[in-house]
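ok so for the tutorial part 2 we go from a plain amino acid sequence to predicted C-alpha cells. step 1 is just haveing the sequence, like this:
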Amino acid sequence: MLNHDSKSRSILKTLTWRIVASLDTFLIAWWITSDPWAGASIAGIEIVTKIGLYYLHERAWSHATVGALSHEKVEDETLSDFVHHHQPHFKHRK
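step 2 — the prediction. this is what the C-alpha cells look like for a chain of 94 residues:
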C-alpha cells in the first residue's frame, strides 16, 4: 500500500506553496521592473495559472510509484535495517 496524499492535503499544499511562490514572483518582478504595480500584475496572473498546474502536478505524483515507500515498509524497517540493506556491498579480495 502506497502512501498517497489526500485531495484536501494536496489542495492545502497547493495554496501554501502559491503564497510563497507568488511572493517570490512579485519581489523579483518588482526588482526587475522597479514598479511594484507591474510586480503585482505579473504575480496576479501567475497565481491563476500556476495554482492549477501545481495541483495537477501534485495529484499526478500522488499516484506515482517512483521512490514511494509503503506504510508497512516505513514502519517495519529500523534505521540499522535500512543502513544494512542500502549500503554498497563489495566483494572482499583475499
